[in-house]
Amino acid sequence: LQDVCEYWGKPSSVLLGLGALYICFYWRWVPKRPLLVTGRHFASFLEKNCPIIKEKYYPTLWCVEGHLQTLVRPLMKSRPRVTYRNERIRTPDGGQIALDWLDNVCSHQYVDSSLRPTVLILPGLTGTSNESYVLHLVQEVAFKAYRAVVFNNRGFGGAELLTPRTFCAANTEDLETVIQHVKTQYPQAPLMAVGVSMGGMILLNYLAKKGTKSNLLAALTLSVCWNNTESAVSLEKPLNHLLFNSYLTSNLCSIINRHRKAVESKVDVDFVMKAQTIREFDERCTCVIFGYKSWQEYYHDASPYYKLSDMHVPVLCLNAADDPFAPFHTIPFDTVRAHPNIALLVTSHGGHIGFLEGMFPRHRNYMDRVLAQFITAVFEHRDELEDVCKHISR
Predict the structure, then answer these.
(1) DSSP-assigned beta bridge partners for residue 88
(2) Which residue of 221, 233, 252, 357 could cross-link 200, Cys pair, CB 3.0 to 4.6 Å?
(3) List 67, 323, 339, 348, catalytic entry
(4) How far apart are CA 303 and CA 233, in angstroms?
(5) Is the dihedral of CA 341, 355, 202, 375 positive or negative?
(6) Which residues contact 27 (CB under 8 A, 6 or more apart)?
(7) Catalytic residue at 270?
(8) Helix or strand or coil: residue 128?
(9) Burial (Cβ within 10 Å: 0-12, 13-18, ≥19) of residue 7
(10) Minimal CA–CA distance to 59: which of 341, 271, 350, 394?
(11) What does each of the 394 residues of the chain score in pLDDT, given as a tens digit?
(12) What is the side-by-side order of every strand in the sheet holding 315-320?
């Protein structure tokens, strides 16, 4: 007994014991199948063509919690080498948008570029085509022999602001311009869109506005925020403000300061620069530029939660239950059950744009694999998808 006590009295032995207990806890409680909520026909399509939705998600052993997943992803993820073709297009109001294309001219499956399926990617708040998560998504698209194009919001992607207008989650005019441009360039190529975080909000708001005339076969959102007001409340909690809100607000302010000359006729730049939260930034800048009377009015208009009934194309939405940006209670489970064209895929863990897996989560993750399987299902099984749409429209 004395020998046993001496053994467990050693710090290394205690650590080994605690490690063993944690591993037992992990294998017993952490890996779970994601929750899928959608209509019967769309569920059958997804279960047949996207087997990942029936698999358990194993988050990184040492990085399970949502805040950790969110923080570690930009630090750990590799940056695949992607060579873009940059294009600037003009908007009806005189502005410009930077598009970054991966044409995939070496595609052996789709040699004719006019028929090559295209995936339009919308990055998150302050994100660009060079974010690590965007590079991985583009790489997945390329692996499938498709073409990718990244829509950088105004003022990003190396494009200067030419008008006193930036971007907001509720306004879809720029996205409409981009989609029209892509369809003009490749009218015969099937097109779908992928929106990440705020990019997903813009995409869902576009689908709600356009209804059956979106020019998209389908859509995928990743870590979308469903209710802007509730997201703001969550992000203003002390820990979330320290870890995320302050940093993102600083990025937003630096963007406005960089384009000071373009926007100073519309907003008080010095007042904007004093914003301490995303909500304050939106109140002082976004609401002024886009004509909202208050941040409450803007946040309600920007929230996809209220517009699900107006969306008509098939949409798969991946969220994590522990996302600090999109609290679990804001995910519209009950509403989606009444709209069979929308599918919610919710993992127990994953954080915000995290979804890390493997001991050294530098490369492909769960989010990338969901995208790879879903875009393949959409482009390679279009007949089945059309049957789903027929049932949806009834």
Answers:
(1) 98
(2) 221
(3) 323
(4) 14
(5) negative
(6) none
(7) no
(8) coil
(9) exposed
(10) 350
(11) 444 445 445 566 777 888 888 899 899 999 999 999 999 999 999 999 999 999 999 999 999 999 999 999 999 999 999 999 999 999 999 999 999 999 998 888 999 999 999 999 999 999 999 999 999 999 999 999 999 999 999 999 989 999 999 999 999 999 999 999 999 999 999 999 999 999 999 999 999 999 999 999 999 999 999 999 999 999 999 999 999 999 999 999 999 999 999 999 999 999 999 999 999 999 999 999 999 999 999 999 999 999 999 999 999 999 999 999 999 999 999 999 988 899 999 999 999 999 999 999 999 999 999 999 999 999 999 989 888 877 766 6
(12) 35-37, 342-347, 315-320, 219-222, 191-196, 118-122, 147-152, 96-102, 85-90
- Give yes or no: 197 in active site: yes
Q: How many angstroms separate the CA atoms of 380 and 180, rounded?
A: 23
Token couple for 28: 């017993």
Out of 41, 312, 349, 352, the active site residue is 352
Both tokens of residue 185? 């360039």
Q: Are 192 and 144 in contact (CB under 8 A)?
A: no
Q: What whole-number distance in Å separates Cα of residue 298 and Cα of residue 291?
A: 9
Cα 348 vs. chain centroid, distance in angstroms?
17
Side-chain half-sphere of 12: how many Cα atoms within 13 Å? 1
Q: Which of 132, 197, 214, 231 is catalytic?
A: 197
Judge whether 323 counts as a catalytic residue: yes
Helix and strand totals (H; E) in the chain: 18, 9
Distance (Å, rounded) from C-alpha 141 to C-alpha 243? Answer: 31
Neighbours of 240 (CB within 10 A): 18
Tokens of 86: 């940059």
Length of the chain: 394
> Cα separation of 21 and 15, whole Å?
10
CA 80 to chain centre: 18
Q: Would residue 210 be called left, alpha or beta, if left means φ above 0 and alpha means ψ between -120 and 50 degrees?
A: alpha
- For residue 27, what are its two tokens? 């294998």
> In whole angstroms, how large is the CA radius of gyration of the chain?
22
Q: Which two tokens stand for residue 295?
A: 């941040």
| DSSP per position, 299-346 | HHHH-GGG-GGG--S-EEEEEETT-SSS-GGGS-HHHHHT-TTEEEEE
Q: Are 244 and 235 a contacting pair, CB within 8 Å?
A: yes
- What is the residue whose two structure tokens read 């829509």? 151
